[in-house]
Amino acid sequence: MENTGCHTPGDFERGQQDKMIEANLARVGRKILVMSGKGGVGKSTVASYLALLLSMNGKKVGLLDVDLHGPTVGRLMNVQGGFDTAEEGVVRPYRFSDNLSIVSLDMLLGENKDTAVIWRGPMKISAIRQFISDIEWGDLDYLVVDSPPGTGDEPLTVAQTIPDAEAIIVTTPQEISLADVRKSINFCHQVKLKILGVVENMSGHTCPHCGKDVPIFGSGGGEKMAAQMGVPHLGRIPIDAEMVDSGDRGDLKGLTDKADLEINAAYKKILEQIS
Ligand code: ADP
């Protein structure tokens, strides 16, 4: 059949959505995608804590959790409630503070946070695009996006939807984690995503009793790997039981008051490099 060049309704809607995405992203300064090769390395914690610290430094920050199967930002940040729909026809993110807005799939799950989200690729792609197109984020200095581990639909959708996003890749120091991070770095090269650098989380631990350094997962592996792969190394964050406790209680903010914590000095260094 001859191609008349007509557009299907799907094409039209997608075109409209592209325009909305473009308009919303034009109001955002920096877009940072936080990735990891493996789960459990502290990626959501790094994304949330960096977003929190940036907002406390006076920046307007949006935190978007696209880890659709395992959204944790809502728990780490104790998000109580859903979207702000006070104004008719407008959906705004959850307002954590004057400077920090959050969107996580947790917010759509209602009371039952243990619901398993069983979605195939197209639904995930559609949800991520809607989180950007249909939500009124307002003017932001930073949009921090927490992506699930690996190189699947979610980071790919972010890379394609936000072409000027910059990636932070979180790893732990041991080889089993670093092997997957190399894949994340190669993914960024392939989809032409700028890499801000690698963060080595859970790097060393100072024993609270004797003060000795205990390299539980080792230390320095992320830095070495970053040098080998020719990407910046942003810093090492040690293991700290207070981080686990604050995360479990949804009170990462409480940690920011503890000026003498080693993790806060480490985050400060990272922040200086990405601000
Ligand atoms: P991911 O997003 O990579 O799956 P999470 O951010 O959910 O990882 O963190 C996994 C666990 O590790 C959480 O219990 C979190 O509190 C803990 N954690 C993260 N960073 C640190 C750290 N520097 N020291 C100790 N525990 C940490």
Automatic annotation (TrEMBL):
The keyword Iron-sulfur applies. One of its GO terms (biological process) is iron-sulfur cluster assembly. One of its GO terms (molecular function) is ATP binding. Keywords: ATP-binding, Hydrolase, Iron, Iron-sulfur, Metal-binding, Nucleotide-binding. It comes from the Bacteria. SUPFAM superfamilies: P-loop containing nucleoside triphosphate hydrolases. The keyword Metal-binding applies. ATP binds at G37, K38, G39, G40, V41, G42, K43, S44. GO terms for cellular component: cytosol. InterPro entries: Mrp-like_CS, Mrp/NBP35_ATP-bd, P-loop_NTPase, YlxH/NBP35. Belongs to the Mrp/NBP35 ATP-binding proteins family. Binds and transfers iron-sulfur (Fe-S) clusters to target apoproteins. Can hydrolyze ATP. Homodimer. This is Iron-sulfur cluster carrier protein.
